[in-house]
Design a protein that fits this description.
The chain is built from ten helices and six strands, in the order E-H-E-H-E-H-E-H-E-H-E-H-H-H-H-H. With 219 residues, it is an alpha/beta fold. It has a six-stranded parallel beta sheet with strand order 2-1-3-4-5-6, with helices on both faces. Helix 1 links the parallel strand 1 and strand 2. Helix 8 crosses helix 9.
């Protein structure tokens, strides 16, 4: 029966205590941790070397300590769509989480929050279900994803929508100010607020106006 099947697990967690603890829990429930790694490149290499039954990974880990683990999981699922992946993290990275959960039609994938796991048997059950092709998602993760997938323009004020529509016509700040009979400084303030609400990062400053217009056109 599937309940008795021992799983071969690749574990990715940069915290040494958490990594050892998860290894102990998985072993206790009859599974074999074929390799436990602390960074995303090692995760990719371990999966290639061992071809495990399931990957259990954190989100934030080296080399950049952002969403390296999650992005590695997405890449692994692209290479091998049937690879079961369970994300176990303190953080909800909504953009990457959506991509992971959409992969392979949402089969054999999970996303759980460490702080919301009350009983280790629940975690063990989630590992088993994902390995067997199921989907396990913490309700808090679902809530964040649904909020993100609403029309992003719903976050904008009516004036910010007007400014964005004029931007989509290719108008400069000065031309927008003239059309709305406001100062150029006011237009700049509206644009900055709009870009922040659309989650367009400052480090992409050269392209932010283009990305904002694309968001407008998609909506």
């Amino acid at each position: 029966m599937s309940e008795a099947r021992s799983l071969r697990v690749v574990l990715a967690e940069d915290g040494a205590l958490m990594r050892d603890g998860l290894t102990a829990v998985l072993t206790r429930f009859g599974h074999e941790v074929v390799e436990a790694v602390a960074d995303a490149p090692s995760l990719t290499a371990a999966v290639g070397a061992h071809r495990p039954d399931i990957v259990v990974t954190d989100v934030r880990m080296p080399p950049t300590l952002t969403d390296d683990g999650l992005r590695a999981a997405i890449t692994l699922r692209e290479r091998e769509p049937g690879l079961p992946v369970l994300v176990l993290s303190q953080y909800i990275e909504t953009a990457s989480a959506g991509a992971l959960l959409d992969s392979a039609d949402g089969r054999a994938v999970g996303y759980l929050l460490k702080d919301r796991i009350i009983d280790v048997s629940d975690f063990a059950d989630a590992v088993r279900r994902v390995a067997d092709g199921g989907t396990v998602i913490d309700p808090e993760v679902v809530r964040h994803l649904l909020a993100r997938r609403r029309d992003p323009l719903d976050r904008l004020t009516p004036r910010e929508r007007e400014v964005l529509a004029l931007m989509a016509e290719g108008r400069s700040n000065a031309a927008i100010a003239q059309a709305l009979t406001v100062s150029a400084a006011a237009v700049g303030k509206h644009i900055n607020g709009m870009l922040a609400k659309l989650d367009l990062p400052p480090d992409a400053d050269v392209h932010r106006r283009v990305l904002a217009v694309l968001t407008f056109l998609r909506s």
